[in-house]
Amino acid sequence: MKKFKLLLIGLLLTTSFSMFAQQTVKGIVKEKSSGEPLPGVSVVVKGTVKGTETDFDGNFQITKVKTGDILVFRYLGYANKEVTIGTNLNLTVELEDSAEKLDEIVVVGYGSTTVKDATGSVEAITAKEFTKGNIVTPENLLSGRVAGVNITTSGAPGSGSEIRIRGGSSLNASNNPLIVIDGLPMSGTAGGSRGVLASINPNDIDSFSILKDASATAIYGSRGANGVIIITTKKGRSDYSLDYDFQMGFGEIKDRVNVFNGDDFRNLIALKRPSDIALLGTASTNWQNEIYQKSVSTQHNLTARGQIFGFLPTRLSVGFANIEGNILTSQYDRATISLSMNPSFLNDHLKVNLNYNRAFEDNRFADAGQVASALRYDPSQPVRDNSSPFGGFYQHFTRDAQGRVIMQNGTRNPVAALLQNNNSSDVFRHYGNLNLDYKFHFLPEMTATVNLGFDKSIGDGTSISALNSPASFNDVFIGNDSAYRNEVLNESLDTYLNYVNTFNKIKTDITAGYSYQSFNGSGRDTGNTRNPNDQGATTYTNTPVVLVGFLARAKFTYNEKYLFTLNYRRDGTSRFGPENRWGNFGGAALAWRISDEDFLKENDVISDLKLRASYGVNGQQDGIAGDLYLDRYRFGNQNSQYFWRKSNTIYNPFRKK
């Protein structure tokens, strides 16, 4: 009997240990319809703040969980799923598209709506729909994802892309869309940067909203003519996670333009111009092979999220990108730090969103014009020639009677042009915003929003070429040694009221507000310090540009099927003179949700059908040549003289008489 009791106690202890022992659960999360892995899925132990996210391949791992714990899987656009931990510690979880996909939030100008209630041409792209791969700059997350949006890049590492939404709208002014990040309209960056989005880590992007038609972009008035891209960054949250993502990419230009090799070129010259055969060399150089290189790129991203001090959801992200170009000397390095804090107070009546970002770019630019030079240069000549006065690189030249080097006409050695020239820059940029949303206690249907933002960048660049560089040779060996520094500051303030209420079957959503933004810039250019004929350093300060706008939007929905939206904005810009300073912009849109009508509600073929009609007026005040009304001030140099013609002679009023 005693042995039986001991055995029973042992079994109970073993059972208790197995039930309450802490274990490690891992697995993969996939999309049910396609079987594709889902990155960035939130995995949380129900009732706790313990959790993680799936990696790029959909894998996850959580430690210290017990049998009977429930894992909750959440991903935007998909239905939540709960899985109870049992004996299986290696899970395969499939998520289904959410039946409430039409209720997904879409960010529009100065507010938000849903896919279901949008009247203008607005498209939202979230993380699950981003273009996958070795993405270096944010706009490439959209490549091929949005109808009517074309993104073209030069192929240089980190290079800014040409973005066109439904084509261009101007012959001479800018055709670039307005880009808004967390409510902050971005407008350019310091010289030396590869583009306005180059300093932004794609890993920090949560979603894009693209406003395409005139009625949707009218709320941005004089800056909406080319469409608007609204970027929302990732925020902090209460569950804890620490993620590390590493990517490595390899690049190579495989195709070559078919040109003559050395032997074919010599045969051609012997046939067509036999008197010139002595000018050719004995080599056979494929200059395309010489200027192209295989590239290796790496990206590291470390992200920590969780609630600190018991009330402050926080996200901290650090990223490093090292990107080689496929042309000799082309290199792009970027380091980024991103911080987001998103607390709420007063029983969620006051919501605070603080975003701050710092970015450091190191660039070395390769002259893409040498690709064309490689197609034209003499294939019978070698890359290097030890007897050459051009630093050991072959170059066509002769000498005059005094032995001075005379450069012959024609293309110059493309390899020397790349290796003997160093055009580089360092760019520091920091930007961010503080957004306050307050829902009135005495009138909960009304919300007041204040958004303060800034964007400052400083660019330092140098252009140095060797004294004996054939690319910079001009009668004498001078080379180039120049530097520049410029600063750009963008500051903004937006404040608006939003009132949402339902009266019987009519839902009203009314917004009215004020917008202010200013731009300042200054810079300095040393000129070529090696050239005695160069005019020397110049310093300039741009006249500040100020934009002021008054905006309003009214949206009405009847019976959840008939939608009507009105937008209006009155914009003023200091770019223009007083008589042309102010402009009025507006838009209207109608929509009919046909799929909600009784005759289509039970239809198995049509799940969502909407008929839309819209009209809008937009403007374009940015990128106008010469800034028209504005002046740029520079410190004087010897060119700061004005001459008048008097009696057929040049009159200089500053000359002593």
Helix and strand layout, with pairings?
Blueprint: H1 2-20, E1 23-31, E2 42-45, E3 51-53, E4 59-65, E5 70-74, E6 81-84, E7 90-95, E8 105-108, E9 111-114, E10 122-126, E11 149-152, E12 162-165, E13 178-181, E14 184-186, E15 205-211, H2 214-217, E16 228-233, E17 241-251, H3 262-272, H4 287-291, E18 295-308, E19 312-324, E20 331-341, E21 344-345, E22 350-365, H5 370-376, E23 397-399, E24 405-407, H6 414-419, E25 421-439, E26 446-465, E27 480-503, E28 506-525, E29 538-542, E30 545-558, E31 562-573, E32 582-593, E33 610-616, E34 632-634, E35 644-646, E36 649-651
Parallel strand pairs: 1-7, 13-16
Antiparallel strand pairs: 1-4, 2-3, 2-5, 5-6, 8-9, 10-15, 11-12, 13-14, 15-16, 17-18, 18-19, 19-20, 20-22, 21-22, 22-25, 23-24, 25-26, 26-27, 27-28, 28-29, 28-30, 29-34, 30-31, 31-32, 32-33, 35-36
In words, what does this structure look like?
With 657 residues, the chain is mainly beta. Helices cover 8% and strands 45% of the residues. Among the domains are: 21-95, Immunoglobulin-like (Sandwich); 256-558 and 571-576, no CATH class. The strands form eight sheets. The chain has a 16-stranded antiparallel sheet that branches. Strands 10-15-16-13-14 form a five-stranded mixed sheet. The chain is globular and about 95 Å long. Residues 1-20 and 642-657 have low confidence and may be disordered.
